[in-house]
Every structure is written in C-alpha cells, then in structure tokens.
Predict the 3D structure of the following.
Amino acid sequence: MSVLKEKLAAKINEWRPRTRKLLKEHGEMIIDNVTIGQIIGGMRGVKSLVTDISYLDPNEGIRYRGYTLPEVFKKLPKPKNAEIPYVEGLLYLLLTGDIPSEEEVMDVEDEFKKRRILPRYVYEVIDAFPSLSHPMAMFSSAITIMHRESFFNKKYYAGMPKTSYWEPTYEDALNLLAKLPEIATYIYAKLYRDGKRIQSNPNLDMGGNFAHMMGIDKPYDDVSRLHFIIHSDHESGNVSAHTGHLVASSLSSIYLSVSAMINGLAGPLHGLANQEVLRWLHDLREKMEDQIPTQNEMKQYVWDTLNAGQVIPGFGHAVLRKTDPRYTVQREFCLKHLPEDPIFKYVDILYKVVPPILKEHGKAKNPWPNVDAQSGVIQWHYGVKEYEFYTVLFGIGRAIGVCANIIWDRALSYPIERPKSLTTDMLEKFVESKLKEKKK
Ligand SMILES: CC(C)(COP(=O)(O)OP(=O)(O)OC[C@H]1O[C@@H](n2cnc3c(N)ncnc32)[C@H](O)[C@@H]1OP(=O)(O)O)[C@@H](O)C(=O)NCCC(=O)NCCS
C-alpha cells in the first residue's frame, strides 16, 4: 500500500467516530434558518454541506486544511530550483490534513507516474471531435469515456461493505488525476498545434511534466504548479465542487462525477470567467490598437460593459467580500515575473478602477477581483494564447479538490444528496399564513 493510502486509512479510522457522534447525538440540532430569498436566490449562504478539506472565510479567503495560501506555499516541499511546491504535496495535504515530508511527496509522485498512461480509446474519442469544439466539451467527454475503467464499479458489483467504498474510489481518483495533464495537453495539441504532441517525461513531477508536454520552458513549470494548487478547492458549495459531490453521492464513478463537475465549471459565471476576462480585454485592446488605456479610458470601458447589462468578468464572488487571495498570489507572481507585460498592465488598471465603479454601480455585493481576473494573463504571457483552453487548466486543479472530497464523502458514508423543493404556490400560501398570524 502507498504511504499516502496507509496514512489516509489511519486518518479515516480516527475521524469516523466524530461524524458518527455528531449524527447520533446531535442530529436534530438546528444550525441554520432558510429564507425565501435564499431558496429562490440559489441557496446563497445556506449552511447545508460539510467538508474538512477547505474552508472559505468571506474576508480572509480560502484555507486548505487550516492553512492559508501563503502558508501552503511556504510549507509544502518544492522541487529543486522551483519557487512553487509540488502539486503532489498538495494532494497529500488535502487528503490527510498533514504537511508531507519530501519522501511522502515522492511517494505520491511515484503513484502518479505509474498511472499516467491513457487508454488508446481516449485519444480516439478526442480525435473524433469536430474542429471548433470547445476544449471543455472535449475534456469532459474524455473523462466520461473512462468510466469503464472504474475500479469502484467492479468492486461494487462484486459486493463490498460500505466501509470499504473509499478504497477503490481512492484508486480511481489517483488513476484519473494522473491522467488529466495527459488528456489536457493532447486536446491542446490537437486543437492548436496541428496534433503535434510532446510525449510525457516520466522523470518529472506533475507541474513539470505538464509544462514539458505544453512545450513551454521555465518558469511555466512553476506557473502550472501555482495554477493547479490555487484552483484545487474552494469549499463545497461552488458549482463545480458541489456538482462533483452531488453526482458522486449517487455512487456514480469518479469519472462520471469529475466530468460532471467539469461541465459545471465551464459556465461563464464560474470557471469560464478566466476565458471571458481575456476575451473582454482583447476587445478593448483591439479598440485601443494595442495602446495601454488611461485610467479614464478603462473606466469608460467598464461602464460601457455594465450599461450594456453585462457583468465585469473576474470581479465579484458569491462568498468572498475582499480581494481573493488566489488573485493576490498570482498578482505577486506577475509583479515579479512579468510586470511589463501589456496585458498585465490592463489587468493592473482594472484592479484600480473596477472596485470603485462596482461600488457606485451598487449591485455586486463584492466589488473585488477573484481568481479569474488574473490567471489568463499569466498563461497569455507564457504563450498559451488560446483562451478557450484556460478553463481546462482550472479543471485539472479543481479535480484534485473534488476527488479528495469524494474519497472522504465515501469514507464518512455521506448519503445520497436530496434537498426538498417547494412550489411557488406553496411559498405564497406560506407567506399568506405568516402575515395572517402576524395580524392576529
Ligand atoms: C461570481 C458571481 C456569479 C457571484 O454572483 P452572486 O453571488 O449572485 O453575486 P451578487 O450577490 O453580488 O450579485 C448581485 C448583483 O450584482 C451583480 N454583479 C455581481 N458581480 C458583478 C460583476 N462582476 N459585474 C457586474 N455585476 C455584477 C449580479 O449580476 C447581480 O445582479 P442582479 O441583481 O441584476 O441579478 C458574480 O459576481 C459574477 O457574475 N461575476 C463575474 C463572473 C466571474 O468573475 N465569475 C467567477 C467567480 S470566481
């Protein structure tokens, strides 16, 4: 058994009594009230999910297993001559809650290396896609088609106790995570490099190998590590994480669950916003004939977008009420590595002008930038100019957090998810009776 799996097994055994006790002794305790506004308004803020992998504080931003992003970057082991830690170390942290040693990271790296090879039919499915397909549709399909590899399914149909569900799920998760960079780079080569593909290098870590397969020199290996780490998890209520959890709750395989989460990520209000930021800025760049806009010109562009009834991509958040630390980490990277990049200059001006405008506009509860406002510019700078591909990169990262959550969901026997819905008629009748009661 791998070091990680052994450690995880011990953690699961320690944790199970805590969940059991909460359910058995305090299952009836009320933790939240729900308003009509929340029911109609996308369940915003309703406390109805549990995860121990990450927690999102509205003002502080994300913590992975209790660690802020700067702490994660400081504490996790890094490859030699790298600024950014191993992605494999992050998986170890998300799964176990512990900062791994160098040897423990190497163990995960070895596990990934053993599992990277794609079945032949995955290439054939990608090859069969019509040109001009969106890479997220291709990515999702390539993951779906691997459902037949599911070890969980084989074990389930052979018969296994509930307490063992997490083990084949863990195997499926590692098999899938190891393959995602291979799938993504194959899609990239097919769509944008005339099918000219660079083979995987078995000696490299996940981030290093991804950069190698993309054919991009240093520091793109660090860019990849940074990107996958900061996009991995954002607690459980966002569309992609929640979709992964929901689909897996019916005991669908990791492949079907992760492909569903990829489909959720592909919406412009969620992960696709990283593509939208670049598309929107390029429209402006064309108008400006490549000149850097003044602050006043940028303000006008922002207002024109708002007055046309559109959102400013990369700004706002359903939970956050401050600048997203995932934005800040990337901004610092840009200030260090690409301060003169023209697109970064655009993004930098946006950082200054958008929040006051959104405040004046008066709608968005959070006027500050989110992760997507800053990620595309880094990709663009290092030569990944096909911005339709950016959400695929987000998807590789997000799959790490979603898989970690699904393994724990099964370890703690979380049941199939099934909230209750009401009709509008029922809501109106409920309001009527409450108002009558008040009058009495
Ligand atoms: C992320 C997002 C979907 C959150 O939605 P939310 O929780 O409903 O946000 P709010 O409660 O602040 O929305 C209240 C209003 O402000 C608007 N608003 C929020 N962010 C806005 C933005 N960036 N630009 C313009 N308007 C915005 C909403 O569209 C909504 O308008 P409505 O009342 O006409 O429906 C939203 O901020 C958004 O669309 N941002 C741009 C897309 C983006 O960057 N997505 C990636 C998020 S990580």
